[in-house]
Amino acid sequence: MEKRQELYAGKAKSVFATDDPDHLILTFRDDTSAFDGERMESLARKGMVNNRFNAFIMEQLAAAGIPTHFTQRLSDTESVVKKLDMIPVECVVRNIAAGGLVKRLGVEEGKELNPPTFELFLKNDALHDPMINESLAETFGWATPEQLAEMKALTFRVNDVLKRLFADGGLLLVDYKLEFGLFKGEIVLGDEFSPDGCRLWDAETREKLDKDRFRQGLGGVIEAYEEVGRRIGVGFD
Ligand code: 5GP
User: Fold this and answer.
1) CA dist., res. 154 & res. 67, Å (int)
2) Quick check: 166 and 172 in contact, CB under 8 A?
């Protein structure tokens, strides 16, 4: 497959066209951002770690029957994915209270959420990804009710698969964000799954092993990502 022009550069990944109109190449960069791009830093090895982490998770999800855009890892920092028409809505499931939920509702960090919550956010940096709901998504044409129902069902199926996978590595999957798109009319999981877009705590000590280390200036960011990866079986060689 031939890599062609850059189509889009996000905060941590770039998207390239290929000679195949149905496929794109994602490159995972070392760039790390927080607070809607207000804080940016380059962290050595991050592109490689997240590319390998994401490939591993996407393969686990595909094996569990969840449709994903992931096709194959090409190199340390590149993967081939299906070209999706992205739906500009972020789906968030929370198993334990942290981050935005704690800030918004004043609940105690660490509180177990039973049943887990499901939230929708509009993907829009300029507006700081505001929280939305099904009605707004339908009215403004961001997604149809059928698409939203499918996205919600898939997001919870991902929870079943990944909660178990991380638990086997002595980790709590606190929360995570997923993005979906359409491939030939089918809802497919897109974007990435890495410690950049989820919260993972050590099950015993509740040590934070995800992007909160960067957001909160705790240090050891990539070391924590690698630790999580090693515990669930991601090979970094
Ligand atoms: P919160 O609403 O607590 O800030 O985020 C909930 C979960 O979704 C966290 O795991 C967070 O990392 C993830 N998340 C929400 N929005 C974004 C986003 O725009 N980018 C990334 N990388 N993760 C996000």
Assistant:
1) 9
2) yes
